[in-house]
Every structure is written in structure tokens, then in C-alpha cells.
Amino acid sequence: MRGSSYESIFHYESSLHPPGRSAVSIIILTSIAIFALQTICESILQVNLIRILGLVPLDAVNGGMVWQFISYQFLHADILHIFLNLFMLYMFGREVELVLGWRKFLALYLACGAYAGLCYCWYQFFLGGETIPCVGASGALFGVMMLYALYWPNRTILFFFVIPMRAWTMILILIGIELYYTMTTFESRIANVAHLGGATTAWLIHVLEPRLETFLDQSERRNARKRYLQEFEIKRRVDTILEKISREGMPSLTKEERRFLQDASRKLSDENRHETR
């Protein structure tokens, strides 16, 4: 589909399903399973999983329960909460996953959610609400929507299922709404600052990734040159020892030269084995 086409969030092409393993499917199925477990624990066992797996700033930061930065993303407050989050993930996440691949998408999704949780903790410590738990995938989802808008800024979608607008316009409006409520509604049940944190994380990763890849490429070239020089030096010394053997025979070698030949033979054979894989 091209940027000028309308992208109704009720009509996606079947070709958008990622082949093979899908991170979006993994996230959706895991969230549904955990929500079912959460419901059973609360209604039958009288166990509140939110206090254990939800993000409670005081526990996560001061109490060392750092797993909450990941686990809270898979808990939800009610059926409407999980339905809206997973529905939006399904609509926006599939195309983003096609661009990134399932492993990279999953890592980025969790990273956006984790930083969103960190922003929430900072905000609640500032307000004195460090015992108020946070649950839901919205922070990570805002990261996914930010990437969608960055990849396809001119794609037309239906905002609130009604108003057609460009994807980039949509994300700017959503960020504006989140900023307004973050600064004016301090007792909201919606973690607006977490949404901003997730979107910011995705934007930073998108901007910094090319520079990181350039740095890694340059580092790999330096390492490759270093390995080549080391191998060249080993081969040069091996040739010198072999010439000595040719002239004077094996008995003329010192213990150090014999040990060097054995080590060089082992190292060069290992490198050749890796190259042929």
C-alpha cells in the first residue's frame, strides 16, 4: 500500500501477517494468558498479581523488584483495557515488525515499555504516589505507533476510527494530548507520562540506530584489520621457523619455537574452520 491510500484500521491486507514466528502474536497470546491468570488469582484465589507483577515505583526502584519494568506490560486493569491495547498493537505492530524482524521488534517493544515504566516511576516519586501501581502495554504501544508514524508519515489512517489524517499528524496530536494531561491532571488513572516515555524511546532508537550501526561497522573493520595483522605476524614467524627446520632439522628448534608452532597450528586451523562454516 502506498502513502496516499486510506488505511482503515478495520481493513488490513492478509499479506501483512509476518511469515513464520511473530512477535506481535507472542505478545498478544502472552498478554491474554496472563490476563486470564490475573483474573483467576483475583476472583478465586484472592491473590492480587498487580502488587507483585504490576509496576509499583517504591517496590521496583527501592525494593529491587526490577522485573516489574517488564512484567507490568503484560497485566491489564480490565477487559476493555486489554482489548484496546492488543487491538492497536495488532493494527500498527504487524507492519513495523515486518520492517524490524520479530526479534528486534520484541526487544524494542520491551525497551519502550521499560523506559515508559521508568518515566512513570520518576513522575510518581515527584508527586508522592510511589505506591500507586501501573499496568498495561500502552507505553510500549506508543513506541510502536511512533515507529509506524516515522516509517510511514504520510500514510492516511482513521483517527478514532472516524477522522482521516496522516500518521505523523496523528502521533503529534496524541503526544500533545498526553503532554496536556501530564501537566494538568495529576490524579489521572491513565499513566500519560508513560505514554510519552514509550514514544520518546522509539524516536531516540530510530534516530540513533544508524549512527550506532556505523560505529559498529567501523569497530568491526578495526577488529578485522587487527585480526589480519595478528594472523600475518603468526604466519611470518611460522615461515621463519619452517626455514630453520629446512636448514638445520627439527632438533634445532627450541622449546619455545616448538610450543609456538603448536599454538599457531591450533589457532590457524580454528580460524579456517570458522571461515568454512
Structural commentary:
This protein is mainly alpha-helical. It folds into two domains: 6-213, Rhomboid-like (Rhomboid-like fold, Up-down Bundle), CATH 1.20.1540; 216-275, no CATH class. Helices cover 70% and strands 4% of the residues. It is built from ten helices and three strands. The protein has helices spanning 23-43, 50-53, 57-62, 68-71, 79-100, 102-127, 138-151, 167-184, 192-248, 255-275; strands spanning 6-7, 156-159, 163-166. The protein has a three-stranded mixed sheet. β2 (156-159) and β3 form a beta hairpin. The protein is elongated, with a radius of gyration of 27 Å.
The topology string of helices and strands comes to EHHHHHHHEEHHH
Rg measurement, Å:
27 Å
Domain module count? 2
Number of helices: 10
The coarse overall form would be elongated
Given as residue ranges, the uncertain stretches (5+ residues, pLDDT < 50) are 1-18
Beta-strand residue percentage = under 5%
CATH superfamily of the largest domain: Rhomboid-like
Helix content: 55-70%
Task: Based on the model shown, name its key terms.
single chain; 277 residues; mainly alpha; Rhomboid-like fold; 2 domains; 3-stranded mixed sheet; 3 strands; 70% helix; 4% strand
